[in-house]
Each structure stands twice: as C-alpha cells, then as structure tokens.
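Subject: Sanity check before I submit

Could someone independently write out the structure tokens for this chain? I want to compare against mine line by line before I put it in a report. The sequence has 333 residues.
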Amino acid sequence: MKNVLKIVFVIIGTTIGAGFASGQEIYLFFNKYGFMGIIGMILSCIITGFIIYKVFKILNIKSVKSYSDFLLILSTNKKLNKLMQVIIQCFLLISFFVMIAGFSAYFNQEFKILIYIPAICISILCYITFKNNTKGIVSINTILIPFLCFFISYLGIKNINFIASNNNQINYCTGWLFSSVLYASYNSILLIPILIELNLYIKKQSQIKMCSILCSTILCVLGLALYFLLLRGNNYVQNLELPLIQITKEFGNIYSVIYGIVILIAIFTTAIASGYGFIKNVNKNEEIWMIGICVISVLVAPVGFSNLVSLLYPIFGILGLIQIWGILKVKYL
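---
Independent answer below. Compare away.
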C-alpha cells in the first residue's frame, strides 16, 4: 500500500500543474461548458484512470523498459512512432517552460517581482532535483501532494454554501464531450513517460487497480472543488492570469497566501515531471540538456503562461488522441 500511495502522489503531482491549480485548465476545459462541464470532468477523470490502468498492464506484461519500447508496442510504423516521440518531447519541453512561466507570473502578480528573478530560482531548484532522478520526484511528491490535495478539498468544503445558493449560475453549453476527451488526452502525454519510470515500483494486479481508482477519484474530487470555486468569479476569471488566487481572497488573505503556496507546489512538481521526462527520453548528454532547458526556461518566462495554456494544451490534446487510440488497441497477450 505504501508503494501505491507513493505512485499515486507522483501521478497526481504530474497532472496537477500550474494550469490546473490556478484554475486556467478547469475553466478552459470544463467551466465554460456549464453543467455539462461537470459531467465532462467526471468522464475525463474516468478516462484518465483507465489509461493509467491500461498502460501499467502493458508495461508489466510486455516488460517495457523505455518509452521507445512502449511506442513499438502501440505501432510498428516507424514514421508514426517517430512522430509520437517528437510530439511527446515537444509537449514535455513546452510544459516545463509553461511551469517556469507560471511560477514567475505568480511572484510578478502578487509581489511585483521582476519575472526573471523567480524564474532563475525555480530553474536552479529543478536542476538540483533532476540530479536526484526518479527518487527525487517520488520523495518530493509524497510530502507536497498530500498537502495540496487537503487544501483544495478544504476550500471546496468551505465553498459548499456558495454552491447551494448560486446553482443558477450553472448554465448549459455544447462541446463538453470533446473537451473532456482532450483534457484526458493531453494529460496522458505527460503521464506516460513517468508511468514507465514508476513501473519499477508496481507489479501486482491489485496495486495497478488501486492506483488507477485512487488517481481517478482524487483528480475528480479536486477538479470539482476547483470548478465550483471558479463560479465565485464567474464574471472575471477569464481575464485573470491566476484566477483562483483572486477568488481565495474572498475567504480571507490567509487563504490566498496558502493557496499561492499550493500553486507553487503544483508548478514545481509538474515542472520536475515534465523536465525529467524530456531529459530521460533524450538518452544522451543528460547533463547538458539539464542545464540547457533550465537556462532557456528563464528566457521564455516573460512570454506568460495563461496564453500558452489556452493555445497549446488543446492542440496537444488533439495530437495525444493518436497515442490513446494506440493504447486502446493493444492486446495484453
């Protein structure tokens, strides 16, 4: 059970990044679809749980050791596999840059600190963690992610009275089904390289099932909590870089400060997961790549992260459908 919890925390930490915790992703993929966005959220989490289950089964039965081996199982078409590797690498790298930009945006928004200063700080922290490999990721997430889950859930509970008295704000809108599939799809791009690394820690069928169910349930609870919190700022959330920072101020400044810490935790864990996945897929000159992506991320930070989330994540969600289709077609034996 201890290993299962470690794996769950790493997966949750990989999925919940700056876009999720800030409210950008939840608004983009779910809130703007009204009530059907709630159904979409639940469906998306179920799809994500199923993907986690299917991938772990494939890894165990087929004895997969690397992402290249995994792609060969999905398809023997070398050109298609090469394309998927390029897509994965681009997404992992962009996700890393987005997290660094999100970290910088928080300090710039809340404290008016020059964007480059926090960008340099988090890049150095990421480099140190990369040097510790997977064990570093596991140890960080087992400490930080439980706190993240607890605080988001706590805010969700405090928000219950608002939900009960303002349910008329929840409208209906089409497009929710495709959006929910896209959300699960783009999350799978980031997850699969990490799942391959985590396969060392999980072998039993019961562990695979438990891990999948826990991940799906926790993501759903956290996502719904953020969905209803965003209703508090229904008239302005689309115009904010970090909408939930502003919304939590309605509960008191202390909550805004704590949630700011929560978002920074989410940014850091996802930056580690995406950056580490990118570096391991390169398979050579890892030290140079570690330094290179950290330096470039500082230069990219001023571009901002909210625009990148709204533009690039749906695109990668569409591209990720290729991989999901391949996973669904795989037979275990």
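---
OP: Matches mine. For the report I'm noting this point. The chain has 15 helices and no strands.
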